[in-house]
Amino acid sequence: MKNRRTRWYRSLALRLLFIFWALLSVTAASGYLLAVWNKPKAELKPLEPEIYQTLQPLLSDALTFHSLQPGRLIAGDYRVAAQLSVQGSEKLLMDEMLRVSHGSTLLRMLGQDSPQQIPLDERLLMGPFELNGNKILVTKPLGIEEQVDRERLEAESTRARILTLLVGSGLLAVLLGIWLIRPIRRMILAMREVADGSATPELKRLPKRGDEIGELARALSQGALDLATSRDAQRRLLSDVSHELRSPMARMQVALDLADCNEDDPNWQQLRRDTERLSVIIERILSLSRLENGLVDLNHESLDSGELVQQLINDMCYQHPEVRERLLRHGSNWPVIDTDPELLRLVLENIVRNALHYTEDNVELSCDDYGKGCHIRIRDHGPGVDESTISKLFVPFYRGDPARHHKAGVGLGLALSHRAAAVLGGELKAHNHSEGGLEVVLDLPKSQPEQKE
Amino acid sequence: MRHSVLLIDDDTEMSVMLTELFKRESVDLSVAEDGVTGLDKALNGDYELILLDVMLPGIDGMQLLQRLRQQHRDTAVLMLTARGDDDDRVMGLELGADDYLPKPFNPRELIARVRALLRRTPNTTMQNESLNVCGIVLDPATTEVKCDDAELILTPTEFDILRCLMQQAGQMVSKDQLSVAALGRKMEPFDRSLDVHISNIRKKFPAKPDRIQTIRGRGYRLIASL
C-alpha cells in the first residue's frame, strides 16, 4: 500500500493558517460585539424641571436667544452646543467638537418636540429650547458623582469584556488542541503497542485524516505491520528451524548410543557432549519461542516458595553432588505464592545453574516478603558483571565473558528466565552486590493478574 | 524371556535404529509406520507394550489410543509426545496411556521407561491375596476389581495404583511410592501422570470419588472405610 502524499488543499499548514486566522477573527469579532453590547445605553430622558426653570428665563428674550451661538456660555456651566435659526435662510450651527463625535445625536435632539436630556461623554446635552421657531441645544459638564458613576460602569463592562474574551478564546484553543493533539496521542499509543512487541497491533484507532497527521498515521500503520510481520517471521523461523532440527538430533543421539565406540575415546565423548548441548539449545529456543508467542498455559497453584526452592536445591545436588556445599538457602520467611510452579522453577533453575557455572564460590538463595509480592534473590560470590553489560545479560545468546566461551552454557538460560518471569507477571533484574558478586533478583507478585500474556 | 514391543512412529530412520537398540536389550521391536497399520497390529498382535508417537499419518496417536481402549485392550502404552506440549500429555494419559516420554528423548531414558513398564506387567504380581477396603474388592489373581458390587474396568497402571493405595489404606502414600509401584520410576518435577491416573480412577468409581483423598503436593490416601 502506497502512502499517498498529502494534497496541498488538505495540508496541515493550510489548515493551521486557516484555524489561526479564524481564531483571531473570532476573537476580534467577539471583542467588538462585546464592546457594542456592553456600552451603557445613553437614553433620552425628559429634561428635569429644575434645569428648565433655571434656563427658561434666560431664553425668553428673542434678541438674546438669537445671539446664542455654539460655544457661548449662558449661565454658570451651561454652554450652547447647537443653534438652528429659521430667520432668513435656515442655518444650523454646531459646536465643532460635538459635531464630529456626536453629530447624529445633536440632530436627533433638535428634532424632539419637548426638551430632553442625554449624557454625552462628560457632558449632559439638553434641548431643544425653542423661541419663534429657533432652537438651541445646551450642554453642561457632568457633576463629580455622575462622572464616578460612569467610570464605574465602564470599568465593570471592561472587566466583563476581558473575561468573556479569555473564556471564548480559551475554548477555541482547547478545541484546536484536541483537534491537533488527540490524533498524535493515538499514534503514540499505537507506537507503544508496537514497541511492546505486539504481533498484531491494534491500529484501528489511528486517525483517518487527509492531512499530514493522517499521512503520518498511515505511514506508522504500515511500518508497524511490516515490523510485526518481520518480527513474527524471525520468531517463526527460529522456531521452525529448531523443530526441524529435533528429529535429526534425536536420531543422532540414538546413533551415538549404537555406534561401536570405545566409551573412553575422547572424540566420542566430545561428540556425545555436543549432541547433548545442541539438543539443549534447540529445546531452549523452542521454550523461548513458546513463551514469547504466549503459547504457554499457566497452571496457577498456591505453593510454598521455600519448599519449591528446597526441592530445586535437592534435585540439583542429586544431579551434581559436587555443588552440595555451594548451594545455600537462607531465611525462613519464604511466602506462599499463587503462581505456576513449573515456570517459577524454570526461572530459578536457570539463574542458579548460571551462577554455579560461572563462579567458584557459594550461591545463596534468599527471599524477602514485601506484602503484595516477594523478592527472591540469587547471589553468587564471583567477580560480578561489568556495569555496562549488565543490561545485556538477559538478551538471547549474549555471553558475559566470551573468553570463557568453551566452558559456557548456550547463552539462552537467562533470556528464558527473564521471559518466563515476565509471563508470571514478575520481573527479573541483575545488579552487582555491594559486597561483591552478582545478585539476580526476581520480583514476583503473590497473586497472578487475571489476564494472560 | 524376550519381550515384544510395538513401535508406531513414522520416522523410518529412527525406527531402524531403535529396533537395533532394543535388540541389544533383548526386546523384539515391531514397527508400524502409520496409524492404520499400527492399530491393526496393536489389535491383532500380542504385544506387552506399545510405543506410540502422537503425530502420525492416517489416524493420529490420540485417536489410535482411544480406539484401542474402546476395544478393551489394556496393553501398556507409552506415548511419545513433543516436549512442552502439556495438553498432549494430559490428553494422552486421560485417554488411557500409561506413561509419556517427551521427544526428543535420550535413548537410555527410553529404555529405562520401557523396562519399568515391562517389569510391572500383571503376571509378575507377587501378592495374590484379595483385598477388600472401603467398598472396593480387588483380586490380583484374576485382576478383577469391584466397587460397590459394580465391576470396574481399570488399565494395568490404574490397577497397580489402586492396589498400592489399598494395601496401605488409611495412610498417606507418597507420590514417589505410587509412581514406583505403577510406572516403575520416581516422579519427575511437574510430572502430571500420576495425578491424571488418579483422576481417571476416581471417574470410574460408581459413587463417592473422594474415597481417594489428595494430600496436597505430597501424596494420596484411600480412606479406610466409608
UniProtKB/TrEMBL annotation, chain B:
GO terms for biological process: regulation of DNA-templated transcription. Coiled coil: none annotated. The keyword Phosphoprotein applies. Keywords: Cytoplasm, DNA-binding, Phosphoprotein, Transcription, Transcription regulation, Two-component regulatory system. It holds the Pfam family Response_reg. The modification 4-aspartylphosphate is found at residue 53. Residues 128-224 bind DNA. GO terms for cellular component: cytosol; protein-DNA complex. It is found in: Cytoplasm. Residues 4-118 form the Response regulatory domain. It comes from the Bacteria. Residues 128-224 form the OmpR/PhoB-type domain. GO terms for molecular function: phosphorelay response regulator activity; transcription cis-regulatory region binding. PANTHER family: REGULATOR OF RPOS, TRANSCRIPTIONAL REGULATORY PROTEIN CPXR. This is Response regulator transcription factor.
